[in-house]
């Protein structure tokens, strides 16, 4: 077994060291010749210096690509995905951290069902609050509801207790077989920042695989929420453009009924 972790860093000084160390500890506990690819996206907050020090500390594990500017989530992740050689690929945000038992459980989920394309755990905020990290495919109405009311959605949500399939999971932590990329392809580089995770999961379903959420195991995600809320900024604007492209690409907008029929999915959470 070999895991290739892919992590992005953009002004992640608060989190990147904890993220890298959590993976180093998890990989040491799991054993095997695992690898950690970090793509540094032109940070200006000291993240570069932290990563350089970590490279010296973990020379056989950590491999960093330093970009001069922020290339977005898709181009950057694809840089590392092309180099990943592991049997399994772990896509993770720099503001997340995970322990070995969670990774082992997700691997078992993948091994138990060849139709499982992506396995994901329950995500929590650092204070233990439930994080709404999976959802139905977005429609315009659902996306607006999530954008302005995510806190209320999370507060009112009843977290599931048993594994189930989901439409999509945010890319804060995915685990999949390296071979999935042969069937689905890399991330769509026409999307700069979000909803590349929705697009990829949709393509996983179209290729005949599923996305499985296992709430019995967890990871922590201290979400930076770059595009959350009603305030306009560069990330929010690019997110809106990406969403419009997603609707155009997959041929839906207000209803999921036809989309579900095309991908052979009966209903959410089935």
TrEMBL record:
Per the UniProt entry, what species is this protein from, by scientific name?
A: Quisquiliibacterium transsilvanicum
List the PANTHER family hit by this protein, alphabetically. RHAMNOSYLTRANSFERASE WBBL
The cross-references to Gene3D superfamilies, in alphabetical order and at most eight, read: Spore Coat Polysaccharide Biosynthesis Protein SpsA, Chain A
Which InterPro entries does the annotation name? Glyco_trans_2-like, Nucleotide-diphossugar_trans
Q: What is the lineage of its organism?
A: Bacteria, Pseudomonadati, Pseudomonadota, Betaproteobacteria, Burkholderiales
Cite the Glycosyltransferase 2-like domain residue spans from the record. 4-184
Q: Name one GO molecular function term.
A: transferase activity
* Keywords for the protein's UniProt record, in alphabetical order: Transferase
Instruction: Name it.
Output: GT2 family glycosyltransferase
Asked if the keyword Transferase belongs to this entry, the reply reads yes
Q: Which residues cross the membrane?
A: none
């Amino acid at each position: 077994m070999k895991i290739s972790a892919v992590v992005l860093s953009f002004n992640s000084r608060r989190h990147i060291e904890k993220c890298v160390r959590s993976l180093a500890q998890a990989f040491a506990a799991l054993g095997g010749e695992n690898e950690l690819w970090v793509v540094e996206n032109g940070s200006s907050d000291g993240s570069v210096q932290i990563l350089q020090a970590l490279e010296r500390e973990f020379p056989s594990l950590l491999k960093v690509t330093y970009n001069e500017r922020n290339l977005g989530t898709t181009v950057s992740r694809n840089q590392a995905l092309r180099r990943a050689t592991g049997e399994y690929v772990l896509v993770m945000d720099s503001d997340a951290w995970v322990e070995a038992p969670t990774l082992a459980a997700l691997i078992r989920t993948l091994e138990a069902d060849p139709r499982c394309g992506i396995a994901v755990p329950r995500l929590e905020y650092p204070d233990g609050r439930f994080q709404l990290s999976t959802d139905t495919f977005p429609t315009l109405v659902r996306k607006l509801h999530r954008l302005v009311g995510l806190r209320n959605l999370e507060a009112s949500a009843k977290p599931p207790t048993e594994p189930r399939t989901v439409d999509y999971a945010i890319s804060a932590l995915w685990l999949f077989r390296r071979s999935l990329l042969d069937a689905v392809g890399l991330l769509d580089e026409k999307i700069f920042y979000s909803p590349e995770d929705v697009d990829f999961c949709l393509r996983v379903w179209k290729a005949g695989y599923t996305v499985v959420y296992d709430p019995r195991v967890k990871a922590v995600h201290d979400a930076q929420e770059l595009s959350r809320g009603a305030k306009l900024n560069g990330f929010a604007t690019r997110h809106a453009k990406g969403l419009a492209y997603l609707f155009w690409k997959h041929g839906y907008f207000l209803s999921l009924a036809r989309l579900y029929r095309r991908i052979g999915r009966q209903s959410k959470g089935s």
